[in-house]
Amino acid sequence: MLIENFRPGAMDGLGFGWSDLHAANPRLIYCSLKGFLSGPYEHRAALDEVTQMMGGLAYMTGLPDRPMRVGASVVDVTGGLFGVVGILAALERRRRTGEGERITGSLFETTAFLVGQHMAQEAVTGEAALPMSVRRSAWAVYDVFESREGEKVFVGVVSDTQWWRFCKEFDLRDLQGDVSLAENNERVRRRDRILPVVSALFRSLGKEELLMRLERAGVPFAQVNTPSDLIDDPHLCANGGLVGVTLPDGACAGTRTQTPALPIEWADARFGLRHDIPAAGEHGRDVLAAAGYAPKRIDELERAGLVRFPPA
Q: Does domain 2-125 have CATH number 3.40.50.360?
C-alpha cells in the first residue's frame, strides 16, 4: 500500500506514479489525497481553509457577512477518513480479485459532502440555508445560556417528552401547564416568551447544580469547554480516552502531554498508544530491514545521504 499527498504530477515526475508502480506490482493499493478530484480545479493548490471557503462550510459557520473557518481542521481529518474508507474497500476487492486499485480523496469534494445537508434543505424548503449563527432554531430551547457564575452551558430540549421532563425538573409549572406549549412547533412560535424565563432561571443557579439537574432531566446539554479543559475531562480520563506522549523535537523536546486516543472501542476496549512519537528517521533502519534491505545496503544508503537516521 502507498499513500501520498504531493501536488498533482509530483509522484509521476519522481517515477512513483500509479502507472509505473501498478505495472511493477499489480496488487498495489495506491491512495492519493489531493485538493480536488478530476475536473477543472484538479491542478489547483488547496488547503483545509481554502476548501472550507469554496465549499460553503465557512459561510455556514460564520456571520452572514463574515465567513469563518471551523475551529478545527475538519476537512483535513474527514478527507483522510474518506481515503481510509476507499482503502478498506480496495483491500476487500483485492482479497476477492487479487487486483490492486487506485483511490483518490480530496478536500473540496469532502467539504461539499459535509455541506450536502444544507443543499438538500434548500431543495426541500425552497429557501437557501442561513449561516448557523443566525438560523431559526427548530426547537424553542436550543441555545447557550449562563449559570450564576457566568459559565456558559448549551441546552437543547428537542422532543415533547424532554419538554415535559425539563419543566418538571426545574419546576416550570406555568410553562408545563400551558396547553398552547404542548407541541414543539407551538413552542418555537413562542420562543420570545419561553427563553427569558429559562435564561433567568439558569442565571439563578450555580453551574454544578445546573449541570446536575440537566442530567437528571435527561435533556442534551454541554458545558462550553476550551481544548485545555479536555485534558482534565473526567470522562476522557476514565477509560483511556487520553494517551500520554512525549514531544521529541524542538524547544519542547522531552515534554509529556496528553492527546486524544482514537475515538473507537473494540470489544469494549480503547486503542492505547502503540509507540511514542518518533524522532525523524528514528525507526528508519527497522523499516528498511523489514522491507528486505540488508544491513550493509542500509549503511551504503546512509553514507550516500539517501537516508538519514538520528544519532544512536
A: no
